[in-house]
Write a structure and sequence with these properties.
Interacts with ZFYVE20. Does not interact with the GDP dissociation inhibitors ARHGDIA and ARHGDIB. By secondary structure, the chain is an alpha/beta fold. The protein has five helices and six strands, in the order E-H-E-E-H-E-H-E-H-E-H. 43% of the residues lie in helices and 23% in strands. A six-stranded mixed sheet has the order 2-3-1-4-5-6, with helices on both faces.
């Protein structure tokens, strides 16, 4: 697909819904986690999105959630613009594991923007009960400066909103950086003009 504008890494425990989330976003389909094999290393997907009239190519690295692939996963989240840390809303252990991945990520990628994503929302009050309290997640999110989303890859609920927000934040941050660079450049130019005025008049 060519150049990627936004690099997004997906982290989380195995069967936390990462691969289904990518499949729903990129292909708008749902296969179901029971048919997936564990990801080895990382799988890549990409999609173009339009935000406020701007076209962005989103690159997604779906990393392996198994503990034996932890060291490999670190290779793939290097220089990421955003990280979606997934946890299963019906599995409290997966949320504790999500905290581990946040901690690992922040050790080397402090500038990476964090998104905590509770998956499998469609299962709540149907097959299973909610095991991860929303307020506990938001309290933790405040600590690590993350945004919280709850999604269902089966129904598509919350998926577009998550990726749209990532793209929107990316564009806003780029605008701030460009504005700062522009101001700094103008400041240097102004100083040079002032110096010339002093010497010539």
């Amino acid at each position: 697909m060519g150049k990627v504008d936004i690099k997004i890494v997906l982290l989380g425990r195995e069967y936390s819904g990462k691969t289904s989330l990518v499949e729903r976003f990129v292909y708008n389909q749902f296969t179901g986690e029971d048919l997936y094999q564990n990801t080895i290393g990382a799988a890549f997907g990409a999609k173009k999105i339009v935000i406020n009239g701007q076209v962005l190519t989103v690159g997604l690295w779906d990393t392996a959630g198994s503990e034996r692939y932890e060291s490999i996963g670190r290779i793939y989240y290097r220089n990421s613009n955003a990280a979606i840390v997934c946890y299963d809303l019906t599995d409290v252990v997966s949320f504790e594991r999500a905290k581990f991945w946040v901690s690992e990520l922040l050790k080397s990628e402090e500038k990476c923007r964090l998104y905590l994503c509770g998956t499998k929302k469609d299962l709540i009050n149907k097959d299973r009960k909610r095991a991860v309290d929303y307020h506990n997640v938001t309290d933790y999110a405040d600590e690590v400066n993350a945004e919280v989303f709850e999604t269902s890859s089966k129904t598509g609920g919350g998926v577009e909103e998550l990726f749209y927000k990532i793209g929107e934040n990316f564009l806003k941050e780029n605008e701030v950086v460009e504005a700062n660079e522009s101001r700094n450049g103008f400041g240097v130019f102004s100083m040079e003009v002032e110096k010339k005025k002093e010497c010539c008049f």
